[in-house]
Design goal:
heterodimer; A: 228 residues; mainly alpha; two-stranded antiparallel sheet; 10 helices; 2% strand; globular; B: 200 residues; 0% strand
Chain lengths: 228, 200
């Protein structure tokens, strides 16, 4: 039973609670780095590394962090790991560092990481939190790869930098530019909704309550919700 | 004169060409979350301008006078996010105490901006682009104005979407994203305008 349970924690991040396509978290990096497959893959791995480390540490410290100041504590922990990952990438993969640019820093405020800390790691044991981090990280990477593949193949006629014959003669640059990103992401979510109809607790409304930092600003969120 | 021209170029390009929301994808969450009503969009936009200006004004001297002189450049990320978070809290407390009327109209949106990637993005970009203090203030103002512009335009489009009939699986977020894609496409047209207008 316990083994089954652990498996489902790992798998739910990949499919049923995919952070990008179902929970709709971490929209900013999703859109920004998916114009190339390599960028998407390295962003996915970097975020996954930060997510696993921060989930582990937050879960270890969950009994020591006072409830009232938990969000600032989480942010400090996450930001520390982002700095480590950033320095490592800068040292060993300078091309990828240049490709990701400021978005590497912005992993700190990526909703997925803070969201998992708030929703999962702050309440569960270390083992489960690590599994959750791995699952969510793989889900994030796969979703980014899917979007990036569509954008790069149609937009540049190449895959991970390798040119594809025939398609590259008819490339539509719209898809690697900003508007193409928004459109492909929208269509992807629509496809996932259509495929999983009824099976997944799809988030109906995208508003304040979906934001993981909602915990910090409860009253504000309620007010915005009421006005809607 | 030359200096003034640079400032105008920075302002125009951060409002129109490199619009933070529509071409750099920073601050997408509030853009999609709080753009349903016009008054909310305006309130959020003004708060973002305010916080961006304040955050840049504080982080710029810290980067150059503290981090760089002490060789602590790697602490940038950690320090900036803490500064922004505490600054927002501080402003909210001050507003609540001294200008309750302003707090009532803007205060709601302030906490929402704490972990907004657009604010962190602006402060880090100012440093990465090696802007002077004046330039970084102008660029923050431009980014904030661009955010406000995008929010206001988009809230108008969203009220149209609410009334129209949409296929089941596109309802909610997908159609909103596709609408945002068209707004972004419209902004794309500004690309070469700024250079041609000012003579780049």
């Amino acid at each position: 039973m316990s083994k089954n349970n652990n498996m489902s924690i790992l798998l739910k991040g990949i499919l049923l609670e995919n952070p990008v396509l179902v929970l709709i978290l971490g929209t900013c990096p999703t859109l920004a780095v998916t114009n190339s497959v390599i960028g998407a893959f390295s962003m996915g791995l970097a975020a996954m590394a930060v997510l696993i480390c921060s989930n582990t540490v937050i879960s270890l410290l969950r009994k020591f962090i006072p409830d009232t100041v938990r969000i600032p504590c989480y942010i400090v922990i996450i930001s520390g790991f982002v700095t480590i990952v950033k320095l490592l990438i800068h040292a060993f993969f300078p091309e990828i560092y240049a490709l990701l640019g400021v978005y590497l820093d912005l992993i700190t405020v990526n909703c997925i990481i803070l969201g998992r800390a708030e929703i999962f790691a702050g309440k569960n044991t270390v083992g489960k939190s690590v599994l959750d981090g791995i699952g969510m990280g793989i889900g994030f990477t796969l979703a980014l790869l899917a979007i990036a593949t569509v954008r790069e193949v149609i937009g540049l006629g190449s895959f991970a930098g390798m040119e594809i014959p025939f398609i590259s003669d008819y490339k539509i640059e719209f898809f690697v530019k900003a508007p193409g990103g928004l459109m492909v992401y929208g269509i992807m979510i629509a496809i996932v909704t259509a495929l999983t109809k009824g099976k997944v607790p799809m988030k109906k409304e995208f508003a304040c309550e979906g934001c993981p930092s909602a915990g910090v600003c409860n009253t504000a969120c309620k007010q915005v919700k009421e006005e809607n | 004169m030359e200096n003034f021209k640079t400032l105008i170029i920075i302002l125009m390009s951060s409002v129109l060409v490199n619009n933070y929301v529509l071409s750099r994808f920073l601050g997408i969450c509030p853009f999609l979350g709080v753009s349903k009503k016009l008054n909310q969009a305006v309130g959020m936009g003004i708060s973002v301008i305010f916080v961006m200006l304040l955050a840049s004004a504080v982080t710029w001297p810290i980067q150059y006078y503290i981090l760089d002189t002490l060789g602590l450049g790697y602490m940038q990320n950690l320090l900036f996010i803490l500064i922004i978070a505490s600054l927002v809290q501080f402003v909210e407390i001050v507003l609540k105490k001294f200008i309750p009327s302003l707090h009532k109209s803007l205060g709601v949106y302030l906490p929402l901006i704490t972990t907004n990637c657009a604010v962190l993005g602006v402060t880090i970009n100012n440093i990465n682009d090696k802007y002077t203090f004046t330039e970084s203030m102008v660029s923050s103002l431009g980014c904030g104005l661009g955010f406000l512009l995008a929010m206001v335009l988009f809230s108008g489009i969203r009220s149209k979407i609410e009334e129209s009939e949409i296929p089941q699986s596109f309802r909610g977020l997908p159609v909103t994203l596709i609408a945002a894609s068209f707004v972004s496409l419209a902004f794309f047209g500004f690309g070469s305008i700024v250079e041609n207008l000012i003579g780049g």
